[in-house]
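Run log, item B.
One chain of 171 residues. Sequence copied directly from the ordering sheet:
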Amino acid sequence: ETALFRRMNYCKYSAELLRRKLNPSRPSSRAVAQIQELLAQATSDRDWIVQANLRLVISIAKKFANAQMTFEDLLSDGITSLLRAVEKFDFDRGFRFSTYATQAIRRSLCRQLQTAQRESRRFVAADPLLLADDRDSASTLTLARWEELRKKLKRLLSRLDPRERSIIRRR
């Protein structure tokens, strides 16, 4: 693991040094080929690390899956977090990558779940009685029914924040 991270970081560093030495107006084809080769090696090492840790993402995503967030969505976010963790990991600190990646993935998935919960609370389904079509045969509302609907509307509007309430009233 340490050797892979060391080689990946060395390849990136070497590619950056060569890139800085390039003449932008007339780049050397040999230098460009070397840079591409170094970056390909770094990408290959990164992909190998990600492939080796995919089971970790799957096991964490299984624990977080619920009705609000599907397993596939969590898996996708977890893999993105894993890729970010590979780029940020510092092997010189002496920790195993799996420890670092586990924390990064959990933190990311917790954020996703919190966002989903906030949005589900924000967009609460309307009262089914409010949407029901209870028109009488003359298609007029009685005074009692009209007051009932006004109370329900006021209750629904109270769930919105002031800005949303203002927008609905203006409409």
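Observations after the first pass:
- Residues 13 and 142 are 78 Å apart (CA to CA).
- Residues 97-122 form the longest helix (26 residues).
Flagged for discussion on Thursday.
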